Amino acid sequence: MTSIRQDLKEPFADLLLSVADDKFILGHRNSDWTGLAPMLEEDIAFSSLAQDEIAHAKALYELIGGLLGRSADELAFGRALEGYRCATIVELPDEFDWATAICRQLLCNRFDALRLARLARSTHKPLADLASRLAAEQRIHVEHADSWIVRLGAGTEDSRRRMQRALDALAPEAPMLFEPVDGQERLESAGLYPLAATDMFQEWSESIAAVTGKAGLRLTIQPPAAQTNGGRHGRHSKHLAELLDEMCEVYRLEPNAAW
Fold first, then answer.
1. Containing structural domain, residue 184
2. Per-residue pLDDT tens for 49-61?
3. What pTM, to 2 d.p., does this model score?
4. Distances from the Cα of 103 to the Cαs of 54, 134, 219, 231, 233, in angstroms?
5. What domain count does the chain have?
6. For the chain, what percentages of helix, strand and coil (3-state, to nearest 5) are there?
7. Cα–Cα nearest to 146, from 105, 183, 111
8. Using alpha carbons only, how large is the chain's radius of gyration in Å?
9. Interior/surface letters 44-56, b for 16+ CB within 10 angstroms, e for the rest
């Protein structure tokens, strides 16, 4: 299937924007580490992963733009704050704390791996094909975060303490990755966002617990409260407004500029 029913276009666009916006904002947050990562090899690796996230977002924006008749640049830079669908966890600055950056990678990357696996089974073939490609690349992101979690959690007393502190700080925000967009149940029924074979939150939390347990770290995460509205409904932290002011400055001055 390549066409989308008119009544499903808005929720379908919101769902895809939630994926693209998560990746776009996280990619920009992580790109701040270029030149500042703990070692040269990691500087290259983390910058490459940040570039991956932004490239994934661009591909998704182009797909969404084809549905809505808007350009990828307009979707990335031309929306009002409340038009973004990213979760708060990707908006937060990590204050150049490596433990925070890596723990956020663990939580977000393992969620994205499950979300992309579902999208790869979508009845919308262009999306299924794109999600399959992105899912293969996402596995590299997951493996990278996992290795750092174990390395630092099972490292020195200081590294373990820092990692535990970062996990404790991020745990309250992580469940909102699962906040559904309006109309998500209809997308699931139509096969555009196929239901997972197992409970997605449980699979996600158990996979994270396996990694943190191996690292000697503790993490307790509760499912998101029902009817709680956050980033998927346009409610964002002040940090996203500040980041968008910086990211969108050139586009807002000259939206038709070509490079």
1. 7-253
2. 999 999 999 999 9
3. 0.95
4. 19, 21, 11, 20, 25
5. 1
6. 70, 0, 30
7. 105
8. 18
9. eebbebbebbbeb
